[in-house]
Model the fold of this input.
Amino acid sequence: MTSQSAWDVFQQTCPSRTSLARIANRWTAMIVIALDAGPLRFGELRTGVAGISAKVLTETLRDLERDGLLHRTAYAQVPPRVEYELTALGRSLHEPMRALQRWAQQHIPEVLEARDAYDATR
Done:
């Protein structure tokens, strides 16, 4: 097994690169933040993460489950009930995602101002 110090996200073949791409995905960040409150059903996630399509939510949830960041529990009942919750690994990602959320919300006035200034010169 390769030692952890050998992982280099800047190397094209490094598996950490795919993890970084998954984590950097805007939907991943919002799902991880939304699931901090506890398990949620698909519809609750879709409502809470406004703007995400059912297809993209399904794909993102599958990817997060595959990467060990969330656990999917299907209950044998009618109608079917499925809940998603963060694993310990997923919970370890929550605080960095919250920090990004706080940064984005705190600095949006500056970002919007910079965009306006940039667009005015183009």
About this structure: The first helix runs from residue 15 to 24. The chain has one domain: 6-120. The mean pLDDT is 91.
